[in-house]
Design goal:
Chain lengths: 114, 114
């Protein structure tokens, strides 16, 4: 069975600090996808990034970067120079190939204070 | 494109009443999902569908029924509402193969059962 663990329930930082959100997953499949979604205070859920299990290359998009390491079953998300607008709940998710559904972590609530 | 829409946005029910939540998507996605999100918790899958005319149970299906008579619509029914079903309900849709099950979410329905 697949499982996603986000050990950090809440994180609070001051604006301009860097912050890393941890995600650890379990799966018996060799082919799978990992995701990060963002849920701002307004409540909608927004897709941020998708990685497949064959692509361990780290990705950077502006202030966001993602570190995927199969050896440690982790897919961590770093925000550099955080801003108040980054305050949200962030969810990590895993889909096994052909599973038809995803497993979500419980989310990490990030608060960025001015 | 409207993406994923949900009707209604808010609803208050009395215990024992019934209601149907409607989810519609205009992206021609095969897969559709219903989740509930309780305060401080992640997303829990209620039911999902991998195609028109098919449905399957998620991790918390009790007290809910679903139907997928048309590809673009996925209905969630509560036959006899209970206070424990007070929650925010999210619908999502996805491609499976093409995008590794990247899910696109509706805005949510806030349901209160008194």
């Amino acid at each position: 069975a697949q499982k996603v663990t986000q050990a950090q329930t809440e994180i609070s930082v001051v604006e301009k600090e860097d912050v890393t959100l941890d995600c650890v997953y379990e799966t018996r499949d060799t082919t799978y996808y990992l995701f990060w979604y963002k849920q701002p205070p307004s409540g909608e859920l927004v897709f941020l990034i998708r990685r497949n299990s064959f692509d361990e290359q780290n990705e950077i998009s502006g202030r966001y970067s993602w570190n995927f390491q199969k050896s440690t079953s982790s897919f961590n998300f770093t925000i550099t120079a955080s801003q108040v607008v980054d305050s949200a709940v962030y969810f990590c998710a895993l889909t096994e190939m052909n599973a038809g559904k995803s497993t979500f972590g419980d989310g990490t609530t990030l608060t960025v204070k001015p | 494109n409207a993406g994923v829409t949900q009707t209604p946005k808010f609803r208050v029910l009395k215990t024992g009443q019934s209601m149907t939540l409607l989810c519609a998507q205009d992206m021609n996605h095969e897969y559709m999902y219903w989740y509930r999100q309780d305060p401080g918790m992640g997303l829990r899958l209620i039911h999902y569908s991998v195609g028109e005319g098919t449905t399957a149970k998620g991790e918390v299906p009790d007290g809910y029924n679903v139907s997928r008579l048309k590809k673009q619509n996925f209905l969630l029914g509560l036959e006899s509402a209970a206070p424990s079903q007070t929650s925010v309900y999210f619908c999502a849709s996805s491609y499976q193969v093409q995008e590794g099950n990247t899910q696109y979410f509706g805005p949510g329905t806030r349901l209160t059962v008194l």
